[in-house]
Amino acid sequence: MLKLYGFPSSNYVNIVNLALLEKDVPFEYVLTYPSQSPELLSRSPRGKVPFLETPNGCITEANVILEYLEDTSEGIRLLPSDPIEKARVRSLMKEIELYIELPARTCYAEAIFGAVPVPEAIKARAREELLAGFATLKRHARFSPYVAGDSLTAADIVFLYSVEIATVVATKLFELDPLADSPAARDLLQRLRERPHVKSIASRQAAEWPGFIAAVRAKYQRK
Fold it and tell me: Which of 9, 47, 176, 220 is the most interior residue, by most CB within 10 Å?
């Protein structure tokens, strides 16, 4: 059986978790936090999560794991079979990650963890990149009704677990609602939240969140 290593407060872990659940792939969830321990590094070379243990070894990086699941498992398809449409979904996934999730991540210490103020120069850059990233998404996505068209794809999973937290950053730090002018995107985000598997992941995350935030704040205080 496949084993997913990660923890519930990681959006990248949740991306893989939701894909496994939506595809109805049997797996075991192994609670694991990033570290530089020799044991973890032997499975995840950067000491990161998520990683997926398979009968033939471990696979790292969320997007790579999603592609592995498409190649090896049954269930609903999260990447189209048509090469052009598949490339389009992959482009959307990468654009959301690079231009929305990663800029927002530079401000997590202040906006999400409430640990330390982020330097103003970093926040100014993040604001600029988030505005450009959301503009890119609105130009490229279809939202008809899903990100890439009429069916759920991996782009929707990345959208859910990247755009939701990036919106929190934009609202808290910049008083911006990046989806204010995109009701279709807002509607999709809400519909995704209502999916049963998304709710189960959210429930697990809510149970862990207070302890996770406390641990992150303590780590910043030790620096």
Answer: 9
Q: Which two tokens stand for residue 81?
A: 């079979």
Q: What separation, in Å, do the N-terminal and C-terminal C-alpha atoms of the chain show?
A: 40
Q: Is the dihedral of CA 193, 145, 91, 125 positive or negative?
A: negative
C-beta atoms surrounding 124 within 10 Å: 11
Cα gap 185→182, rounded to integer Å: 5
The domain locations on the chain are 2-76, 83-196
46-65 per-position pLDDT tens digit: 999 999 999 999 999 999 99
Given the structure tokens 């969830």, which residue do they identify? 29
What's the CATH code, domain 2-76?
A: 3.40.30.10
Q: Tell me, what's the pLDDT at 223?
A: 72
Of the candidates 164, 169, 189, 154, the one whose C-alpha atom is nearest the C-alpha of residue 113 is 169
Residue 51 CA to residue 64 CA, distance in Å, equals 10
CATH class of 83-196: mainly alpha
- Rounded Cα distance between 101 and 164, Å, is 9
* Residue recorded with tokens 């519930």: 8
pTM over 0.85: yes
Which secondary-structure segment (H or E) carries 184? helix 183-193
Q: Which of 86, 103, 102, 73 is nearest to 151 (CA)?
A: 86
Rg, C-alpha atoms of the chain: 17
